[in-house]
Amino acid sequence: MPSLGHRRGDLPMPREIRLWQGTVIFGADEPRKDLWFLTSGSVRFHGGAGEEMLCHAQGGACLLTSGDSASEAVAATDITAICVPCANFARLVSASQEFRAFVFAACSQRIAELFSGSDEMRRGHLPRLH
User: Fold this and answer.
1) What Cα–Cα distance (Å) separates residue 96 from each residue in 12, 61, 104, 117, 126?
2) What is the pLDDT of residue 19?
3) What does 79-128 look like in DSSP terms, one character per residue?
4) Structure confidence by residue, pLDDT tens digits, 80-116
5) Could you tell me which residues are beta bridge partners of residue 16?
């Protein structure tokens, strides 16, 4: 986990979480209290109408979610993630250069994965997840 470079104060701090394969990370339509950065393993998202998506931590961290969502997330493998309370996220990004770099790297990686997946889908190369 990146060093935060400041005192904890009165807000909840990020924490590293390890979950076993098959663990439900969050259910459909549950309010999200944390931002999740997947640092190892894979997570499967189940959406409406049988839609599924697989998210991997490949050489960095992958931002899983923020806000409310209609999808369920389940650990497809054993995973490790950093959970950052939404209430504290802006303060941490503002106060810690190292944490800010960690967040932007995770977001950049996720955007690149989405663009890559979009290209693969247009070419018909992505198998449907079951």
Assistant:
1) 15, 17, 12, 32, 38
2) 96
3) EEEEEEEHHHHHHHHHH-HHHHHHHHHHHHHHHHHHHHHHHHHHHT-SPP
4) 998 888 888 888 888 888 888 888 887 777 677 667 6
5) 82
Q: What stretch of H or E contains 48?
A: none
Q: What is the dihedral of CA 80, 104, 1, 18, to 10 degrees?
A: -10
Tokens of 51: 């839609």
Say if CB 35 and CB 63 are below 8 A apart. Answer: yes
**Contact present, 88 and 68 (Cβ < 8 Å):** no
- CATH H-level superfamily of 15-123: Jelly Rolls (2.60.120.10)
pLDDT tens sequence across 15-63: 899 999 999 998 888 888 888 888 899 998 887 777 787 787 776 677 7
Angle between helices 97-123 and 86-95 (to 10 degrees): 110
